[in-house]
Amino acid sequence: MEVSPGEEHLTFMQWAEGAGIKIKGITPARFPGRRLGMKATRTIKNNEIMLTVPVNLMLTIDSIPSSFTSQFPSGTSIHGILAAFLTHGDPALLKDVDPWRKVWPSFDEFEDSMPVLWPEHLRVSNSSYGASSSSSQRKVLLPPSISGDWNSFSKEPVGVDYDTRYQNLLSQQEKRLKDAWAHVVTVYPETEWKTFAYYWCIINSRSFYYVSPGKDEPEDWNDAIGMVPFADYFNHVDDAACDVTFDGKKYTFRATRRYEKGEEIFMSYGSHSNDFLLVEYGFSLPTNPSDTIYLDDIIFQDLTIAQKKELAAQGIFGNYTLPLPHPDPPSTPSNIHSAATLEYLSRRDWRNYVSGRPCHGVDEQKSNRIIRDWVEKYVSECVVTEGIIEGMLDSKDQDQEDGNGDGDGGKVGSRAWEREKLRMLLERWGQIRRLCEGVIEGLE
């Protein structure tokens, strides 16, 4: 027997169709053990359009009255203004989208799933916001791509400014949220933090690509956003058989294979690592072809200032990823191989090597040995952090045996809830360790 997604979801679907959204062969549905998603109500053919959403039904910076948007100081993010509108906008305008708002996740769901809202001791990072305990006392539980910190060694100053948008994920997200909040309270000082943070998370986790007509992309790529009603039911997989296009007038979702009745239909949010998915959307995948980790902090420890400057001069500084990438063209060395050969080649030979010219002295075994040493340092971090988390779990399990559990059924912030988060983090560290071990095996 099929389980209804709930009356509010059926009401929203009727609202969407009445407003002009074209829905063909799909419906929101509940899937056991997971969130709501989209499923086929009949056979869907390859190349069939399943959903069309006109731009005039989207929530964008252009759909908000200029009398509202013009209130905010220069530098206020589009993301922040959208969240402010949902918090303080004209009640009559917001009432028009009530059926949509009623199917959004609750704040408790965001507190449960998004590290930015977790208790401080679970989200230790290099963020400048809210850190109250000394760094020597803080144990890092989140992976380095999220936290920007390590348990097994101390980071060294990089000395070079470079794009780390997929690293230091939590501190970047916290800065975006807190900066947006600071701008909004200059206009609406009575704004309640929890309400604003809730709508900020709604927009952060449910938006699609959007840039105002005739304008360049915003300086911050996080501001190229708009919300697309009904399309936000689609869950993510990396290789989804769903083609998503936006032509400035409408979003179109087209099947790229045949779907049978009852199948879940996914879309791809992009090629993202599990760390990125956890921070931005509050979930990770058991299998993720795009999963990636970074060796930057480990590699930089081995390099002199002169070597770092050389990498920067060649445009190959930082973002050293695992799994090892496949260069294109194959004759071009990857960034991580370029960093490894810098350890032993003469400067002249190294410059020839990274530019694809003939050179002397490149030793694949020596390069692999250097890279393997770097990866083994990451494995050591996995072992140390897994031990920390296992120790915390043992302590909490002992509390439960001693009758110190809070018996609240796993509410956010409870001991049962924290055990669940710790187990999830332990599983993530296991994924990272296995990724590293696979790379090491391939280098031998």
From TrEMBL:
Protein name per UniProt: Ribosomal N-lysine methyltransferase
Region (Disordered): 393-414
PANTHER family: SET DOMAIN-CONTAINING PROTEIN, UNCHARACTERIZED PUTATIVE METHYLTRANSFERASE
InterPro entries, A to Z: SET_dom, SET_dom_sf, SETD3_SETD6_MTase
SET domain location: 24-270
UniProtKB keywords: Methyltransferase, Transferase
Keyword Methyltransferase annotated: yes
GO molecular function, one term: protein-lysine N-methyltransferase activity
GO biological process, one term: methylation
One Pfam family per UniProt: SET
